[in-house]
Structure prediction request, 97 residues.
Amino acid sequence: MYPYGLASKVNAHPGKREDLLQVLVEISRLVFHAEGCQSYVVSTLVAEADAVFITEYWASQEAQRSAFALPGIFELINDCQTLSIGFEQVELQPLNS
Prediction:
């Protein structure tokens, strides 16, 4: 197993970024204590008023995928989908920890 990272940019519906941030911070609270989670950071983008950026680092891709089994996570993901108009995501291969 190799370390795994994921970087995501989520675009909120206009005026809904604060609502989206609340949901994403709740997701971060849940997954941060999941086995294999090394870091889960939610950030705002200074130059984009409706965008949010998430970086996640995990012990493995399998560990990241197992976080979807956490109680309540799918409801929160559905909330994110309602509040957002799209997202971009790239996988990362961490070289150090």
User: Anything to note?
Assistant: Strands lie at 4-12, 37-44, 51-58, 84-92. The mean pLDDT is 94. DSSP finds three helices and four strands in the chain. The first helix runs from residue 17 to 32.
